[in-house]
């Protein structure tokens, strides 16, 4: 999906912290004709309204799913993605842009990226990231403080049932977490751990008939907190992991995110 950005995400430090990648390397200069950039009521952030003029921004031709999820979490519930046709040096392109409902916009107050860019970079980045990531606090409170200025805490999902993995991923994203995986086998999980360190892990005890004990051992050795999800109860825990946090399947997604929030706070 191509995305047109026009506001706080134009700051490379903000974008890098949120999207988890180097600043805007593949971005294309783009302009949106027939719109104005104005203040979102009650906030320091911008939105777009139709009107005479043009808005300069950047076109992101492709976003990795994880980067898109993190940016969507940053934008929060006030914004929705809408189709727009932008002009680029390579010709017109269809894309999507995050916009708020027109009733939320204040057309009398223009939002100026130049003023935003002249603030001290660290102050801008910290304020923008923390304000955006902590939007809709009530909905995300179950994350238990796992949202950080540097982006959401990453939770690795180790689950072999595709439907369960999708439900867990949705619950984590709704609670403000970043998601790694899912990994459906011990081999996939171990390879993922070698590539990147998660902040916490949701670990299915039985992976297609294979026990996930080697993964639990690796997590314990590396000091990574984890939750074991199992239908067998605490009595079925592998040796050396009897003190692990356990959620009995089927579990409540709110309970899962609450437990992960507690584990993140304890590990901080």
TrEMBL record:
Protein's name in the database: Response regulatory domain-containing protein
SUPFAM superfamilies named among the record's database cross-references: CheY-like (SSF52172), Gamma-glutamyl cyclotransferase-like (SSF110857)
GO process terms (BP): phosphorelay signal transduction system
Residue intervals of the Response regulatory domain: 154-264
UniProt-listed InterPro entries: AIG2-like_dom, Bact_response_regulator, CheY-like_superfamily, GGCT-like, GGCT-like_sf, Sig_transdc_resp-reg_receiver
Pfam family, one: GGACT
Keyword Hydrolase annotated: no
4-aspartylphosphate: residues carrying this PTM: 204
Signal peptide: none
SMART domains named among the record's database cross-references: REC
Keywords: Phosphoprotein
């Amino acid at each position: 999906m191509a995305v047109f950005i026009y506001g706080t995400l134009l700051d490379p430090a903000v974008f890098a912290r949120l999207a988890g990648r180097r600043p805007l390397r593949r971005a294309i200069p783009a302009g949106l004709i027939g719109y104005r950039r104005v203040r979102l009521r009650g906030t320091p952030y911008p939105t777009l309204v139709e009107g005479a003029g043009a808005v300069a921004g950047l076109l992101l031709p492709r976003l990795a799913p994880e980067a898109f999820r993190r940016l969507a979490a940053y934008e929060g519930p006030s914004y929705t993605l809408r189709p727009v046709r932008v002009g680029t040096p390579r010709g017109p392109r269809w894309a999507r842009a995050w916009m708020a409902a027109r009733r939320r916009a204040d057309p009398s107050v223009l939002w100026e990226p130049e003023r935003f860019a002249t603030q001290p970079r660290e102050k801008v980045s910290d304020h923008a990231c923390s304000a955006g990531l902590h939007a809709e606090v009530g909905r995300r409170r179950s994350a238990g403080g796992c949202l950080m200025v540097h982006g959401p805490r990453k939770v690795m999902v180790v689950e072999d049932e595709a439907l369960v993995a999708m439900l867990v991923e949705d619950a984590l994203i709704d609670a403000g977490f970043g998601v790694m995986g899912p990994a459906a086998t011990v081999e996939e999980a171990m390879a993922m751990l070698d590539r990147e360190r998660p902040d916490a892990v949701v670990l299915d005890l039985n992976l297609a008939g294979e026990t996930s004990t080697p993964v639990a051992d690796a997590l314990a050795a590396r000091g990574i907190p984890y939750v074991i999800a199992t239908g067998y109860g605490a009595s079925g825990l592998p040796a050396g992991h009897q003190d692990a946090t356990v959620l009995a399947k089927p579990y409540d997604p709110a309970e899962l995110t609450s437990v992960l929030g507690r584990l993140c706070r304890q590990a901080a």
